[in-house]
Amino acid sequence: MAASKTRFSGPKYANGNHKSQQKAYNKTKKGLALRVNANRLRRQLKIKKGSPNDAAHYPGSTTKGRAQNRSKNRARIA
Fold it and tell me: Which of 2, 9, 25, 67 has the fewest Cβ atoms nearer than 10 Å?
């Protein structure tokens, strides 16, 4: 039996995504749109990098949102 090769290898982010996987996703149409909207809202809310807050969109909105604590805004890793 041959050794099975994992789909993604190498370093991982804290949320479990592999860096190669995330890099490829960010180039897709959907991934790019998510990233652009997140960065735009962060600029509008004047939230600096490294801040304990995230730019959290209101449900169903891609343009409006509020500053929210990172621990409340991000999914928990099991």
Answer: 2
Domains held by the chain: number: 1
31: in domain? yes
**Could you report the per-residue pLDDT of 24-76, keeping only the tens digit for each?**
888 999 999 988 998 899 999 999 988 888 888 888 888 899 998 888 877 77
> Does some domain include residue 6?
no
Distance between CA atoms of residues 73 and 9, nearest Å: 28
C-beta of residue 54 within 8 angstroms of C-beta of residue 69: yes
Joined together, the tokens standing for residue 6 give 């994992």
**Contact (Cβ atoms closer than 8 angstroms) between residue 31 and residue 25:** yes
Q: What is the pLDDT of residues 16-35, one digit of tens each?
A: 888 888 888 889 999 999 88
Domain range holding 44? 19-73
Query: Structure pTM?
Result: 0.66
